[in-house]
């Protein structure tokens, strides 16, 4: 067993996550490519720091940053899944109503799926996958079940489950789908209210930690260095600027990731 295979087996559900993230690689291949990418990036960071500092201590960046970058890229799968999930949830209400109207109007289900593939970027991908499997000989029930299992959005899985359940039992799907859509609307309204309550404290914290403290801190550092004769070098200021930029990026990413997905079509 190779090292890449061993690591991939130690990451729970990696194969399923890669499918949900639309990353078409086997777990072992993904771990190998991720490790090589991390090593190359660490090497690049080393050369940048060595260029500015001319210090051989910069070589320590490679063993320190490679595992950190590797863990980041492995975690990137979860980030991509969450991003796809939010994009799906932005389309889910209108796509669900489009599906209900088509089914209640007597339009053939494969024609409805084809129209959804054309009209909805993210949800349409999954309905296109269902059609491709059907065209290759898979039954509609099995195709929906297979696609249902790789969908990162619980809301889309709920809708697909209602459709496949209707196909199996021959029951009317319109009422059940309407109930699901109404519940999704209520859940999105609740998430907006919760986001509004969290936004003000986050914005205040961002202003304090990312703007006020760095600005006052650097000013005080310059004044203090003038009085005590401390030599502030350019590499030190460069590292400080990178750290401040990283902190601001992390806060902005945190605020952006906490924003709820709302249907906007």
Features:
Receptor-associated Protein, mainly alpha, single chain, 3 domains, 265 residues, 10 helices
Outline of the structure:
The chain has 265 residues and is mostly helical. The protein has three domains: 3-85, no CATH class; 90-184, Receptor-associated Protein; 190-257. It has helices at 3-10, 14-20, 27-53, 61-104, 109-119, 121-135, 140-150, 154-169, 174-228, 234-257.
In the CATH scheme, the class of the largest domain would be Mainly Alpha
Under the CATH scheme, the architecture of the largest domain is Up-down Bundle
Question: What share of residues are in beta strands?
Answer: under 5%
Anisotropy-based shape: elongated
Number of domains: 3
Q: How many strand units?
A: 0
As for the CATH topology of the largest domain, it is: Receptor-associated Protein
Main sheet summary: none
Q: What is the CA–CA distance across the termini? A: 49 Å
> Which oligomerization state do the chains in this entry correspond to?
single chain
C-alpha Rg (nearest Å)? 25 Å
What is the helical fraction, as a range of percent? over 70%
Question: How would you sum up this structure, described in words?
Answer:
- This protein has 265 residues and is an all-alpha fold.
- The chain has 10 helices and no strands.
- The chain has 3 domains: 3-85, no CATH class; 90-184, Receptor-associated Protein; 190-257.
- It starts with a helix and ends in an 8-residue tail after the last helix.
